[in-house]
Amino acid sequence: MSLFGDKRYQYRDTYFVLFDKKNLPTVAQIESALSDLGSRYETVDKRVKNGILESMTVLAPQDFSAMDITLVEGHDVAAQVKSIQEEFRTVTLTGEDIKKLARLQNFDVRFDIFHFEEIGDSPDGEEEFLDPGGLLLVLEKLAELCDGVALDPQSQSLM
Q: pTM for this structure?
């Protein structure tokens, strides 16, 4: 079940990890990589087809955060890569970012990471604040696993 239908979570932003299909990880590799982040993260609602992850949810309760991760392949990815390259022509990039942008041209698969904030009444009356740290760690881990590039389209940042 997607977090979009869960009243305990409010959608915040979408992030991407783009990569080459030859680096598509198995479900076991993804679970192992995310488990390296520690017990603060829990994967649930995995949907797998032919051994390939279609989607999963990662809960990060201590960060008041959760992420829906979905795999996207095909024309949509190619169109997005072309669009990203055009958008970034107007942005001043430095060394590593220039290399990351150049690598995008070979990418044909992406993970979409939908970031959610856990909302609701705290039993002790204290405010709960979304910590984006969990999201950043998940993005970094997935990009590393796939030898890909993480993208925050809101800030036009390659990670």
A: 0.88
